[in-house]
Amino acid sequence: MPESHYNSLHRLLYTSKSRFSCSEAHVPVEIKGIVAKSFEKNRHRDLTGVLLFINDTFIQVLEGPLSEIETAFEAICCDMRHGNLKLVDMTPVETRIFDEWSMAFVGFDVDPSHLRTNRDLQEVYTIVESDPEKALRQIRGLIN
Ligand SMILES: Cc1cc2nc3c(=O)[nH]c(=O)nc-3n(C[C@H](O)[C@H](O)[C@H](O)COP(=O)(O)O)c2cc1C
């Protein structure tokens, strides 16, 4: 495989089920820690993306050079804080969708009064495996 392929822009989308060993009340703290650390690590790796948390499910998008996505994803796959990981999509892309975010987050911080946001988040959860392209557009709309 030519070197340029490993440097070329790709986008990865996966889902997984959370498997925290901490108490329910501590889960948001744990996730905030994951997001903060991911933000820093991704920034150094030229990775951008978003993490969603809904119905005990993580939905994550990572975009950047293929080699960097692979390195990050290897670590993510080994992380015991989630399981039943499903790779939904991994594809070369022309441009980034989440170019302004090293790791955006949408989940429990959503204000319950933001009914539309919650509805859209639920829809992403429902369609992410059957229609990832539509799910991506929906996710992008959520972090405007
Ligand atoms: C749902 C979830 C999403 C994660 N996303 C990222 C990520 O985008 N980037 C990253 O570097 N680590 C991410 N991690 C953390 C990695 O799995 C791993 O814990 C971390 O990279 C290990 O870093 P360390 O070797 O410096 O301790 C994620 C973990 C979980 C559970």
Automatic annotation (TrEMBL):
| Superkingdom, natural source | Bacteria
Pfam family membership, one: BLUF
**Record-annotated BLUF domain positions:** 9-104
Molecular function in Gene Ontology: blue light photoreceptor activity; FAD binding
Annotated InterPro entries: Acylphosphatase-like_dom_sf, BLUF_domain
Could you identify this protein by its name?
A: Possible activator of photopigment and puc with BLUF domain
